[in-house]
C-alpha cells in the first residue's frame, strides 16, 4: 500500500502540471488565432513605400504591382483589379494614382473581426498627407468608394478628416 501511495504522490502533481500546461497552451493558441483575424492597418507603411517609389522614379506608380522589384520583394500578393488593390492583414487597400505626384488610398477592414478596425482614406503628395477615418464600410457600400469622394460621400460613410497629423 505504501508503494501505491508514493506513485500517487508523484503522478498527481505531474497530472496537475500537465492539465495546467494544456489549459495555458489552449488560451495562448486562441489568442494567437484571434490576433491573426484582427485587421491591422498598414496604411503608413504603404504611404512610405509609395513615397520612396516617387523619390526613385519621379512619379507615383500606376498600380501597386509596380512596387514589386523596386521597393517590395517579388512574391505572391493578394493583388486584384489589375494590381490596383491589395488584401493584406485583413485590410482591403484600393490605390488610385490621381496624377504623377498625387495618389489616394482607401484602407477598408475585412474578415470576421472587421468591426474591430477603422476605414482610412488618404490623399498623399510628396510634401503632404491628408487623412480621413471612419467606421468600417460594409461590403454592400463598397460601390460608394471613389478615388476622390466629395464631402457628401464622406458624410454618408461617417468619415472625418484627421487634423494635426
How does this model look, in words?
The chain is α+β, with helices and mostly antiparallel strands and 165 residues long. It has 2 domains: 1-37; 40-162, no CATH class. Helices cover 35% and strands 24% of the residues. Strands 1-2-3-4-5-6-7 form a 7-stranded antiparallel beta sheet. A hairpin with a 4-residue loop joins strand 1 (78-80) and strand 2 (85-88). The chain is elongated, with a radius of gyration of 24 Å. The chain starts with a helix and ends with a strand. The relative contact order is 0.11. The model has no long low-confidence stretch (mean pLDDT 88).
Sum this structure up briefly.
This protein is α+β, with helices and mostly antiparallel strands and 165 residues long.
How many strands appear in the DSSP assignment?
7
Number of domains: 2
* Rough outline: elongated
Low-pLDDT runs:
none
Instruction: List SSEs in N-to-C order.
Output: HHEEEEEEHE
Structural class: alpha+beta
Biggest sheet strand line-up: 1-2-3-4-5-6-7
List descriptors.
alpha+beta; 165 residues; seven-stranded antiparallel beta sheet; 2 domains; 7 strands
List the helices and strands and how they pair.
Layout: H1 2-37, H2 43-57, E1 78-80, E2 85-88, E3 91-99, E4 102-109, E5 119-124, E6 129-134, H3 151-157, E7 160-162
Antiparallel strand pairs: 1-2, 2-3, 3-4, 4-5, 5-6, 6-7
